[in-house]
Amino acid sequence: MNHYQFETITREFSKRFGKIPRGQERHWNVFFFTFDSNVLKVHRRFPNANDYRLREGLLMALHTIKGRLDGVEPDLASVENNENRLFCNAILSGCDPFFSEELRQRVAKQVPDLSREDADREGIYEESVKCLVRMVESVDFWTKRGGANGYFDMLEMEIGKNVPYDDKMNFTMALSE
């Protein structure tokens, strides 16, 4: 995968799923808190893993999801390193039933056979993808505003006191009743 292909995933998913309208983010707060708390836990444990590695991890997670949707596993070897892989895993723990066994068990109650071709995978990932695309935009904003750790500095101020100092990755999923 070349750099251009790696970077264009947010644009591709914005066309495919739409974007969260500005000012409407509160409707996705549960998703944002889940993803933000997971990546904040990684950053606390590995302080050298900064906003740049988070951005890469977000893009890697989006490419992984795209692979789940399209049936083609992405080749991320050219962009992967230890830090962005930690962030990617933290994100996938929050939304990917193929990555998180605990989440898979919860999703299986409503989507019994995720591996079937006709399983509604887009429905499973839609809300998460919208949030991840917005997170990439937020990371870009806070990195420009606050430097290499601008996003994490903002997270500590905004939600830090509500995020436990542990390694447990949380998850969330929007499923129909």
Largest sheet: none
Please count the beta strands (DSSP E, at least 2 residues each).
Answer: 0
What is the number of domains? 1
Number of helices: 8
* Structural class determined from secondary elements: mainly alpha
What does this structure look like?
It is a single chain. The chain has 177 residues and is mainly α. It has one domain. Helix 3 crosses helix 8. The longest helix has 26 residues. The radius of gyration is 15 Å and the shape is globular. The N and C termini lie far apart (38 Å).
Provide a brief overview of the structure.
This protein is mainly α. It is 62% helix and 0% strand. The chain has one domain (3-15, 25-162).
Defining key terms:
177 residues, single chain, mainly alpha
Per-chain topology:
Blueprint: H1 3-7, H2 9-17, H3 29-45, H4 51-70, H5 82-95, H6 101-108, H7 121-146, H8 150-159
Helix pairs in contact: 2-7, 3-5, 3-8, 4-5, 4-7, 7-8
